[in-house]
Structure formats: structure tokens, C-alpha cells
Amino acid sequence: MFEFDAEKITELVDTHAIPFAIDLLMALVIYIVGKLVVGVVINVLGKLLSRSKYDDMLVDFLKAIAKAFLMLFVIVASLNQLGVDTTSLVAILGAAGLAIGLSLQGSLQNFAAGVMLLVFRPFKAGDFVEAGGAAGVVKSISIFTTIMTTGDNKEVIIPNGAIYGGNITNYSAKETRRVDMVVGIGYDSDLKRAKEVLQEIADADDRILKEPAVTIAVAELADSSVNFVVRPWTATANFWAVKFDFNEQVKLRFDQEGIAIPFPQMDVHVHKNQE
């Protein structure tokens, strides 16, 4: 029959159960205290990042990454307290991370580019930009992709790697823009009067800034026309409206003043053979 040996049980409890219980309790304390400390650190980090005026999406992402790394250290410390050999665990996690990184090179490139876009902010939501082979108004910027809306209301989703790896033109970055136009008149037209009319059109448009002053100058004596460059400055939001209205006024005023606007034409000469 089974004999109850109090001494052996006491020895077993003293040598194994109690130390294990103490280690388990300490591991739980390390985990709980570590989790609380990580929470405090993450909150402080979030406040610091928010004061730096980083994008909310980037702040949340950086907080999540920092929390994951810190909690990993807490878990490793807890397992060490239980006597678990964490060296092999760290090695396995490192190998798994390397394998995942190699299999997701394209995604990681887009991820890194997304972080850079959110940190350096070459553009923001609402800006009209040309980047990644597309042009449109930026709708949103995520970690992996940027979504734009084109002028004809098409939605374009562009990988961030394609954007950050090329040129970025932000048409909304500055408060003012220069409108570059070319206006041609015929060689028989009054050049000085044409220049005066162009100046009058610019002066009559309140959207055109007085400073910097509009540039109106003869740029080229072309094959069939004398070409003026007209370069007024206006608020960025008025760019297209000023350009379209100015061209319309040029046609109307030139017609009133009898100033000819050349257009391409072809002369065809027919030679009749006489037999």
C-alpha cells in the first residue's frame, strides 16, 4: 500500500513547490509591473509625438511598435524568472523576423516609404500633387499606400515606394503661383497696343496680384506670329480660373481692337500639266 511520508512531501514542497511558487509569483509581478511601466512610457511617448505635430496615424503606429518591443522585453524577463531558456526563443524570433522580412521586401519598402512620408510630410491630405506617375488631390496617406482623386474624379491608389522613390511636385505647397501663358499676334498687328491690352486685362482682374508685378514681354519672333509671354501671379486656389478667364478676355479684347491672333494654315498649290 501507499505509505504517506510526510518528510518526503515536506522536502518536495521545500525544494520544488515553494521555489517554483516564488518564481511564478515574481514572474507575475515582473509582468504586471512591466506592463504598467510600458503603459506609462507609451503614454509619455504619445504626448511627445503629438507635440511634434506628427500625423495621428504615424503616432499610433510608432506607439504600437514601441509597445510591442517593450512588452517583448517584459515577457522575456518574466520567462527568465521562471527559469525558461529564452536564448533559443530570441533566436527563433530573430530567424522568423528575417524570413518574414525577405518574403515581404516590397511591402517593407512601401512601409518604410510611408513612414518617411508621414515624418517629413512633403504633402498632406487635400494637396494637389504629382507623384508616382499620377496627379490629383491627396485623399489619404497610410503606411503602405497613398490615395489620390484625379481631376475627373477617379481614385488612384499608389504604393508609397513609388512616390518616395521619385520626384514629388506639390502644387499646393505655396500660397501663390505664377500663371505662364503665351499669346501670339500677327506681324501686321500693332505690337505696342497688344501689349497695352494685355496689361489692361491683367489690371482689371482683382485675383491677379500687384506684387510680384505681371510680366508681359515679347518672347519670340516665330514663323507666323509675334509671341508674348504673360506671367501674372495669383493665389494658388485661383490658378486655373485666372488662366481660363485671361485667355477668354484676350480673345474678346483682341477682336475688339482688331488685333489678329494667328492660327495654323496651309497653302496648297495645284500645278496643272499642259500637254
Provide an overview of this structure.
With 275 residues, this protein is α+β, with helices and mostly antiparallel strands. It folds into 3 domains: 7-103, Helix Hairpins, CATH 1.10.287; 121-170, SH3 type barrels, CATH 2.30.30.60; 176-257, 2-Layer Sandwich (Alpha-Beta Plaits). It contains 7 helices and 10 strands. The chain has helices spanning 6-51, 56-81, 86-103, 105-120, 160-164, 191-204, 239-257; strands at 128-131, 134-141, 145-149, 155-159, 169-170, 176-178, 181-185, 215-221, 226-231, 233-235. The strands form 3 sheets. Strands 4-3-2-1-5 form a 5-stranded antiparallel beta sheet. A hairpin with a 2-residue loop joins strand 1 (128-131) and strand 2. Helix 1 runs antiparallel to helix 2 and helix 6 (191-204) crosses helix 7 (239-257). It is elongated, with a radius of gyration of 36 Å. The chain starts with 5 loop residues before the first helix and ends in an 18-residue tail after the last helix. The mean pLDDT is 83.
